[in-house]
Amino acid sequence: MARLPIYQRIVLTWIRRGINRIDSPTLGRLAGVAPATVRRDLSYLGPLGTRGAGYDVDVLAKQIEEVLGHDRIYDVIVIGLGNLGRALVNSENFLISGARLVGLYDASSAVIGTSINDLTVSDVNGELAPATIAVLCVPASEAQVVTDKVVASGIHAILNFAPQVVSVPIGTAVRYVDVSIELQILAYHLTNGTGPLGGGVIHTLGISRPVPPLSA
Amino acid sequence: MARLPIYQRIVLTWIRRGINRIDSPTLGRLAGVAPATVRRDLSYLGPLGTRGAGYDVDVLAKQIEEVLGHDRIYDVIVIGLGNLGRALVNSENFLISGARLVGLYDASSAVIGTSINDLTVSDVNGELAPATIAVLCVPASEAQVVTDKVVASGIHAILNFAPQVVSVPIGTAVRYVDVSIELQILAYHLTNGTGPLGGGVIHTLGISRPVPPLSA
DNA sequence: GGATGTGAAGTAGTTCACAGCC
DNA sequence: GGCTGTGAACTACTTCACATCC
Fold it and tell me: 3-class SS at B40?
């Protein structure tokens, strides 16, 4: 399922280039997964392909968009506007995929009241705007209290950049992005090559094997 | 294996607090994993625990440190010093775990020559400093050429923040951090709850179930 | 011919359940 | 009693291989 956005991105570039069919070996090569895996993944969306001729890119894009809820708009708040929070808010990758920034929050009086990207930063101790996803860029020590506040405000999905596992009620989704862990995993693979403990295969988003270069 | 750094972090806070034993249910609760999983994970490091009494935190920390290669120093270069690259370089989480910043690179003449964190940004078209890990914060359109250059310079581990799957030779590890994919996955879980396509379970770093609050 | 879609096989990772030990 | 360490069961995911269809 984490691969669908990757397929989507590839299919959209195909559409932009005016190519209207793609087959599973090609899509797999570009996404870094085996052809059979591509077919299995896409088969969950229904029988979209044409045997012998691959997939129509428009049909694919439409189906993936639907299952990802890409047509809906998601209201996102960002809490913690230090270096990382500001970088995210200013990043163009952030707002693709139907996300809409509706609130910025921080605890520091030096930041509260400043404007970033047409939004004014509010005090995190005040009320939070209604939203569906919260992005936490707060220090680890604050992660749990902020999480509790976010949950209390009715948000059920959290993207946590703090290096801290947080506790949430059942029904609330949390995903973690932790740069230092990523570096440690890479460091492990450098020393232990294809050793025990899951050596060899490297993957975060389903990208697991070296991809041969593609000219196109 | 991605869980070892999490265990390590928890164990280190335990040590800092002066508590010298921890058992698998507690460690599991704090890390967001089942006790049996904790024991299975730790058993790969050898029989470290004491039956009936849990694990000695010093022994645990030492063993995890060893298997993570945490005692070694890893030379890291960062390529692309836009908002995200600068935020990472300035972040304190970045340099824990034995990583040492040895080079900064960008393509823009406006950035080349400026100093960040006592390091001067060099031209990415010049020679790259010898390093073991490269962090890419470049636009997606540049990701593959920069990757090729990084690989050619002898680096075998890449952390890629660009929303672009890159192709590398066998033996080179790539990990991806893609914020927009994370948001899309969260959005999917919001609409599809515990549906098909891997619904229900939310996990990035092995954190998969709600953790009951812990007072300590 | 050539690619899809899918049962079946294979693989990886998790959890159970309990013997062994403190 | 309580917790570790681990064979065995289970679950999820990936890949094979081939019948099916364009």
Answer: helix
Task: For CATH 3.40.50.720, list the domain ranges present in chain A.
Answer: 74-179
Q: Is the dihedral of CA A177, A179, A180, A181 positive or negative?
A: positive
Q: State which nucleotides on strand C lie below 7 Å from a protein beta carbon.
A: 1-7, 12-17, 20-22
DSSP-assigned beta bridge partners for residue B200: none
Sheet of B54-56: strand order equals B21-22, B54-56, B49-50
pTM: 0.91
Task: Report CB contact under 8 Å: A91, B83.
Answer: yes
User: Has domain B4-68 been given CATH number 1.10.10.60?
Assistant: no
pLDDT band at A203 (very low <50, low <70, confident <90, very high): very low
A2 nearest nt, CA–C1':
D13
CATH architecture of B74-179: 3-Layer(aba) Sandwich (3.40)
Q: Is the CB of B5 under 7 A from strand D?
A: no
3-state SS assignment for residue B57: helix
Q: What is the pLDDT of residue B193?
A: 64
C1’ C17 / CA B200, Å: 26
What is the mean pLDDT of each successive set of 10 residues along chain B, which is 216 residues long? 95 96 97 97 96 97 91 92 96 81 97 96 98 97 97 97 95 94 91 51 40 40
CA distance A137 to chain B (A): 11
